[in-house]
Write a structure and sequence with these properties.
The protein is an alpha/beta fold. It contains 11 helices and 8 strands. Helix 2 crosses helix 3 (113-121). The longest helix is centred in the N-terminal third of the chain and has 36 residues, at 2-37.
Length: 320
């Protein structure tokens, strides 16, 4: 009898030890993935910094225009934490129309030049901010659109202050910028914000990170769960939000303004299936463009005429 009790105690100790070791291992892995996903820095799985322009670069003429055009340099304090945020502003002659152009994860405003040229050719002032912790803007963590959405609202208010109450504003973004656009759409915004265009944004930060854990690391269901939950908890403690909070779908359910959704049919980074969930969620007038054969954030490069024509027709309906 005594031997059985001793063996039971040993078994309990072994199980407790294994549980502690597993927990410590998962927490350690969570911290590693927090640094990979939420702390800004060089990432092996995405392009980092400003992309060098050569004559063989897709949309070369549009990007060269952006490099050469005269820009105003704007700045403001972030909605929280008083980070100094920087932006480039390119005025269009006698125009009340302004587009706010939002870049992707670990990118910056300088990589959005082709889009700036497109909107400028349609008569829009263009404002290109660097998101928190990107480019020339200060910041500590990536917000996946959840932190950045409040900054976008402040940029819109700054545009109105600059250009007057008759301003008409469009918010446009690609990849994380697309998700930021959708999350911004769920806020109480000035009436001058007329519509949105999002290109290849995800349904939520949590869904995107779960997808990348599987796609980049071939991580099976376990330990993907509970690792993503642990990562989400660490993100809440350090950056102030749960990954599930950064949800395009949830914010779109509060949106009643028009939105154009664009996605490449061959997008494996933000799976094309996500755009359909986002499209169904919004409550306002909507339009969907699936660019056949386009990979992630390459729809404009892949089909420039179709892309430009679709954007121009959509805007003509809602911005006069």
């Amino acid at each position: 009898m005594r031997k059985k009790k001793i063996n039971s105690r040993r078994l309990v100790k072994v199980l407790v030890s294994l549980f502690v070791l597993l927990s410590l291992g998962l927490i350690g892995a969570g911290c590693y993935f927090f640094n990979m996903a939420v702390v800004p820095g060089k990432k092996s799985f995405v392009s980092n910094g400003t992309i060098k322009l050569t004559k063989s670069t897709p949309l070369y003429k549009q990007k060269l225009w952006y490099q050469q055009v005269k820009k105003q340099h704007w700045q403001m304090q972030s909605a929280k934490n008083n980070y100094r945020l920087k932006a480039n502003y390119i005025p269009a002659k006698n125009s009340r129309k302004t587009v706010i152009i939002l870049h992707g994860y670990m990118s910056n405003k300088e990589n959005m030049g082709a889009y700036a040229q497109l909107f400028h050719s349609l008569g829009y002032n263009t404002l290109l901010p660097d998101a928190e912790a990107h480019g020339q803007s200060q910041g500590k963590y990536v917000g996946y659109g959840w932190l950045e959405k409040n900054d976008v609202k402040k940029w819109a208010e700054k545009v109105i202050k600059k250009n007057g109450q008759k301003s008409q504003i469009v918010i446009f973004g690609v990849s994380m910028g697309g998700a930021t656009t959708m999350m911004t759409a769920g806020l109480k915004l000035p009436k001058q914000v007329k519509c949105f265009i999002e290109d290849c944004g995800y349904t939520s930060a949590k869904n995107e990170i779960e997808h990348e854990a599987k796609a980049l690391y071939n991580m099976p269901a376990f330990p993907r769960f509970p690792l993503v939950e642990i990562l989400s908890g660490i993100t809440r403690l350090k950056a102030g939000y749960f990954l599930g909070q950064a949800s395009s779908v949830a914010q779109l359910k509060k949106n009643h303004r028009p939105m154009l959704f664009i996605h490449g049919s061959k997008d494996s980074f933000v799976p094309t299936e996500m755009v359909y969930k986002n499209y169904r969620a919004t409550k306002g007038p909507k339009q969907l463009l699936i660019v056949k054969g386009a990979q992630h954030a390459k729809s404009y490069e892949h089909s420039p005429a179709l892309y430009a024509r679709t954007v121009a027709k959509f805007l003509a309906k809602y911005v006069k």
